[in-house]
Amino acid sequence: MSGIFSVMQPMQQALSYHMERHNVLSTNIAHVDTPGFRPMELERAESQNFGRELSVALTRTTENHLSLPLQAQAQNGRIVPSEDLIAGLDGNQVSLDREASKVAANQLRFEVVSALASAQLRQLSHAASDGRG
């Protein structure tokens, strides 16, 4: 029976990844006027290496340190600084146009996966009701 639902696992992971990426990109946009800010990107982690990356022990050396660094908050990837960006006069590397296009592309991918997951769930519901509903 669990084989029936196994097709939903990759879709759930994809939806979670795109939701997390949206949060990272939104943070970049929110810091468009922050001097010296460097935008971040959510990088997919290979499933066989991801568990090893999460097992890294983090320690706080002083009470002033944040308890969870940004990199530790991602569940479906690894948050890394964006590369090859040109800084403005204030050192900020956020391009509103670039980040907005990333958000739009990410939203489109999320909607496609969501539609596929919904169709799969409808098929499972139809099969469970023996085609009567």
Description:
- The chain is mostly helical and 133 residues long.
- It has one domain.
- It contains four helices and two strands.
- The chain has helices spanning 2-5, 8-30, 47-54, 96-128, and strands spanning 40-44, 77-81.
- A two-stranded antiparallel ribbon has the order 1-2.
- α2 (8-30) runs antiparallel to α4.
Fold topology:
Layout: H1 2-5, H2 8-30, E1 40-44, H3 47-54, E2 77-81, H4 96-128
Antiparallel strand pairs: 1-2
Helix pairs in contact: 2-4
Strand order of the largest sheet: 1-2
Pairing-aware structural class of the strands and helices? mainly alpha
The percent range for helix content is: 40-55%
Strand percent estimate: 5-15%
What composes the largest sheet?
Answer: 2 strands, antiparallel
Average of per-residue pLDDT values: 80
As a whole number of angstroms, the C-alpha radius of gyration is 19 Å
Extended strand count: 2
Number of helices: 4
Low-confidence runs of at least 5 consecutive residues: 48-57, 67-72
Topology order in helix (H) and strand (E) letters: HHEHEH
Number of domains: 1
The separation of the N and C termini measures: 21 Å
Shape: elongated
At a glance:
Helices cover about 50% and strands about 10% of the residues. It has helices at about 1-5, 10-30, 45-55, 95-130, and strands spanning about 40-45, 75-80.
Characteristics of this structure?
single chain, about 130 residues, mainly alpha, two-stranded antiparallel ribbon, 4 helices, about 10% strand, elongated
